[in-house]
Specification:
By secondary structure, the chain is an alpha/beta fold. The protein has 2 domains: about 190 residues, Spore Coat Polysaccharide Biosynthesis Protein SpsA, Chain A (Alpha-Beta Complex); about 50 residues, no CATH class. About 35% of the residues lie in helices and about 20% in strands. Strands 1, 2, 3, 4, 5, 6, 7 and 8 form an 8-stranded mixed sheet that branches. β5 and β6 form a beta hairpin. α7 runs antiparallel to α8. The longest helix is centred in the C-terminal third of the chain and has 17 residues. The chain is globular and about 55 Å long.
Length: about 260
């Protein structure tokens, strides 16, 4: 008989963000599900994170606390510990909806990935980020990152022969999927896979420029260099970031 309760492994990397980590811990504990494997890879935080981890071994299945060179180094250290059928990467501070967890648990690991929408919370606004359907993404996947990683369900088998390229600081989650030769995916368009709270390097002005550079380097490495129009769209997006922040700031003020 095919089982109907598939195990989920959640991976979180941390560095001195204990308050955000507690928020994620509250989200995971609310599921009251002992079958969830939560792996925390901490970069030797000095803000009490390690004490918190040790006091929540009822919730945290596996943990590492040692220096690392960045998020992708941390994720790679977690890969050998994975026990679940499905794997999710959740940042400290991000939360997961219970209906998403229940759906993924009920789904046999047939597709390579399962994805939905993400509710994005930045410092001024909250908005729903909805990805393209899989047929469009599959045709264009090596051109850009069309999927957001937090809460997305990855089939365990993707990690058997592949790992994250630590040479990239921002786009390695996309590069990982692009190099995984994905054959199938399931898009659940009426579900939210995670509540994502911005603030990481990829959402900063300097981080956006670095993402552009890394994208150019990756595209060149696969023989599909970014064209002039794509470069223009990237640069325009980055240059307009301060203006979007200003508009969102006043929008928030007017709604108070």
């Amino acid at each position: 008989m095919m089982k109907s309760n598939y195990k989920i492994s959640i991976i979180t990397s941390t560095l001195n963000c204990i308050d955000a980590l507690k928020k994620t811990a509250y989200s995971i504990s609310s599921f009251k599900d002992n079958s969830i494997q939560w792996i925390i890879v901490d970069a030797e935080s000095t803000d009490g994170t390690l004490d918190f981890i040790k006091n929540r071994i009822d919730l945290i299945s596996d943990w590492i606390s040692e220096p690392d060179t960045g998020i992708y180094h941390a994720w790679n250290k977690a890969i050998p510990l994975i026990k679940g059928d499905w794997v999710m990467f959740v940042g400290a501070g991000d939360t997961l909806p219970i209906d998403w967890i229940n759906f993924v648990k009920s789904r046999p690991p047939v597709e390579d990935i399962i994805y939905g929408n993400i509710l994005v919370h930045d410092k001024y606004t909250t908005y729903l980020s909805s990805p393209k359907p899989w047929n469009y993404i599959a045709e264009n996947f090596k051109k850009n990152m069309f999927l957001k990683h937090p809460g997305m369900a990855h089939n365990n088998r993707l990690f058997k022969k592949n790992k994250f390229n630590e040479g990239y600081r921002i786009i390695s989650d996309w590069v990982f999927l692009a190099n995984s030769n994905l054959q199938s995916a399931l898009y659940i368009k009426d579900m939210i896979q995670a509540d994502f709270y911005t603030g990481g390097i990829s959402t900063t002005y300097s981080g956006a420029w670095l993402a552009f550079k890394e994208t150019k380097d990756f595209r060149k490495s696969i023989g599909d260099p970014i064209n002039i129009r794509e470069s223009f769209n990237w640069i325009l997006y980055i240059l307009l970031m301060p203006l979007r922040d200003l508009v969102n700031f006043f929008h928030k003020k007017l709604n108070i």
